Amino acid sequence: MSEKAAKKHEFQAEVKQVLDIVINSLYTDKEVFIRELVSNASDALEKLRYLQLTEKEVFDEELPLEINISTDDKENTITIEDHGIGMTRDELTKNLGTIAHSGSKAFLNAVKKGGEVDQNLIGQFGVGFYSVFMVAKSVEVYTHNWKKTAKSLLWKSDGSGTFEIESAKGVRRGTKVVVHLKEEDKEFSNTERVKHILMHYSSFVQFPIKLNGKQINNILPIWMRNKNEIKDEEYTEFYRFQANAFDEPYYRMHFSSDAPIEINALVFVPEHNPEQLGFGKVDPGVSLYCKKILIDSKPEGLLPDWMRFLKGVVDSADLPLNISRETMQDSALANKIGQVITGRFIKLLEDESKKDSEKYKEFYQNFSIFIKEGVAADFKNRDKLAKLLRYESSATEKGEFATLDEYVSRMKEEQKEIYYLFAPNREAIDGGPHLEAFKAQGIEVLYLYEPVDEFVMSSLMKYADKDLVSADNSDIELEEISSNKKRDLLSDKDIDTLCEWIKETLGESVNDVSVSKRLVDSPVIALNADKVMTPSMRRMMKAMKQDMNTQNSVNLEINPAHELIKNLSALKDKDADTAKLVTEQILDNALIAAGYLEDPREMVSRVYKILERVSQK
Ligand code: ADP
Ligand code: MG
Asked: What confidence tens digit (pLDDT) does each residue in 451-496 have?
């Protein structure tokens, strides 16, 4: 087939699905197609501006970097033209015929799952270009790639399953999208209507937007402007534009500094945590600019990984303009910039938490996972980040948080360590045996509800020079609880014999059996004998790696004042067989109370045996 003839292509199956949804289900907010096309034009111009820094040979060199929009209410068209990088034949096929982004697949999944289509999803998932078919009966895309050797091309489609690409004549550099509107969507060829939409969505585009020849936007970027002159609504609009989002920014940080590095930064915490929506790990969201020129929209390594939930812009005039995306990561300057932003941001959170702790609490509920990740992985900022952690504790009400600083300020004079306990919820800790001794002695214990918290504690290791220690650790030296001394106990000799006997009976299942100083009401307690690996960490490791040795190392402590223990001491001499059953069951109960038991099935049959014996009597 000759180059000149139109060549017909099928849209990829996923695109057909997207188009089908776009054409048949999306009736409101049709105007977003303008934002999508303008944002593509703006992307293409930013890419060209970046290229111009390094490439000498650019086609149509003299063309201005601007976006021209024209409306024709006789022909019923709207045309959006840019002089950006344009597309080659391959790029046309790939970019406008397939879905290259994982985001679009996520869009489809979300749509299929929910049944109902959320208009707001379109832009967020990068199905941007296809949104034009909400209003178009057909679309023509004229394009010429930036290379001098490239060809003039025309892409055409009515959105019904196929598109054509043919050669064109005399196309200038960039891309021109001609939208032939459906009769019912005539309004988008009306200049006033389009102007209104552009003012709303596109006031932050970095390039002049001309509507029928007249420039309609202010191109001084918001992050370069004086904060005092910027209204909250403008910030919100910018956030939405830049992040392709629809929520309100939750916190905002806008600052400029001159020394030691010149930085203008505008950074937002979104209202919602995108990773909570189940779309996996997000890309970095703070773009890097140099003197208003976009260097990298998702710079890996500029900010620590845990800050990827932030949106916004960092502009530094000190970066060399031709810094490549690859060398950016190694650049000492980029590192410095990252550190400045990180330091300021942590400070912002600290200040905000003091200013309005309820507001911070809500933030924390949505985003704590990132802070925790930071504590575990961002070595440089670990100590500062630890101040941002919040936990319930034995000294707080349910739903109220303590900071580590508050904990430290409440520590008893002789107390040297910070204690925590992990369990799925407050009730499990309050009702469990591990808290008893701490409660009796008025020592505060932090409550950890998520497995990741244990990782956080073990990576942090110390806070304010105090070791962080799990309260179920058998090494903890606790004072004997004073009221325990007056109790009616087994004799020392009986205790020793009983401990020996239990250890022998349980064999490998326990590391050691001893008498406990920390128990008040419970007959036994299982303590973790492995300093490094907690049982729940072990469980997590096992979930990741099947062949992991899962044997927990457990010390069992018995309460010599408890009736059950006293009875057991007598029973072992009268009916060793039943005593063995009871002992095994006591261990399992202790493991359950500690949250250590992994497979309760064996226990069920044992309980039946015990019940059988009891019911005989
Ligand atoms: P996204 O903008 O999120 O990548 P779109 O569906 O809006 O998704 O666009 C798909 C791709 O088509 C873009 O990534 C880009 O490569 C290409 N494209 C769209 N419009 C233009 C344009 N005006 N100039 C150059 N390339 C474009
Ligand atoms: Mg787009």
From this structure: 889 889 989 999 999 999 999 888 888 776 666 666 777 888 999 9
Architecture category of domain 7-215 in CATH: 2-Layer Sandwich (3.30)
Q: What is the pTM of this model?
A: 0.71
Atom number, ligand 1, closest to the C-alpha of residue 80:
23
Q: 14, 37, 40: which to mutate for ligand 1, most atoms within 8 A of CB?
A: 40
Query: How many CB atoms within 10 Å of residue 129?
Result: 19
Please spell the DSSP secondary structure of 110-167, one letter per residue.
Answer: HHHHHSSPPTTHHHHTT-GGGGGGGTEEEEEEEEE-SSTT--EEEEEE-SSSEEEEEE
Superfamily of 487-526+552-615 according to CATH: Heat shock protein 90, C-terminal domain (1.20.120.790)
CATH number of 222-362: 3.30.230.80
Q: For a pocket test of ligand 1, which of 45, 80, 95, 171 has the largest count of ligand atoms closer than 8 A to its C-beta?
A: 95
Structure tokens at 35: 């934002």
Whether 37 and 133 have beta carbons less than 8 Å apart is answered as: no
| Interatomic CA distance for residues 354 and 60, integer angstroms | 56
* 31 ligand 1 Cβ < 6 A: no
